[in-house]
Amino acid sequence: MNLAEFEKFFLEKMSEVSLNDDPAHDLLHLKRVVQTAKKLCVLEKAKIEVVLPAAWFHDMILIAKNDPRRAHASQLSAGAAIEFLRKHNYPQQHLKEIAHAIEAHSFSAGIPPMTIEAQIVQDADRLDALGAIGIARCFATAGLLKRSFYSEDDPFCNSRPADDSLFTVDHFYMKLFTLVDTLKTNAGQIEGEKRLKVMKKFLDDLNLEIKYHLPQ
User: Fold this and answer.
1) Which of 49, 64, 121, 176 gives the lowest tally of CB atoms within 10 Å of its CB?
2) Taking a C-beta distance cutoff of 8 angstroms, is the pair 19, 26 a contact?
3) Domain extent for 13
4) CA–CA separation, 211 vs 205, rounded Å?
């Protein structure tokens, strides 16, 4: 199976089933990550034979964010991906790098991306947690976990530690705003800064609306 055959086969299979019940990690998420990874791959002159399968398979095994096994999801995904690729005769010489790129993409796994291909897949996935789409995904996840949007007493963590196990907006401060500093590629960093501004503008607008009062 060559690269074109792999992508066609993957899309056909994924279109036949619902990937999962999480809109933040659905087929549209995979397609966005793949699209971003392709662009970064060209800019960084990386190996598309590694980047593309790793991007498609990076969330092959999904574990809920509040599950204690979450940190192992990327390693499980890598194992399942390599099993699939071997079964369908994907070139053997790329499998080790594909596995590493999948394992290292995860924030919770804490595995450093040691190749440019792994850095690209990690950047592509983290960029999808930023900007307008990142905001949408954050609140979609909050709905699944039944978390409040914000703390009524201190919505923006001005005088309390952030706690995203209770409040959705706190996740911006605990994780999302920190992602920009973890982006590895130059193009990823530039795009990340753009998306960070979108998120900060959203919180500014949210602050105004929370404080809004009708004229007396």
Assistant:
1) 64
2) yes
3) 1-112
4) 10
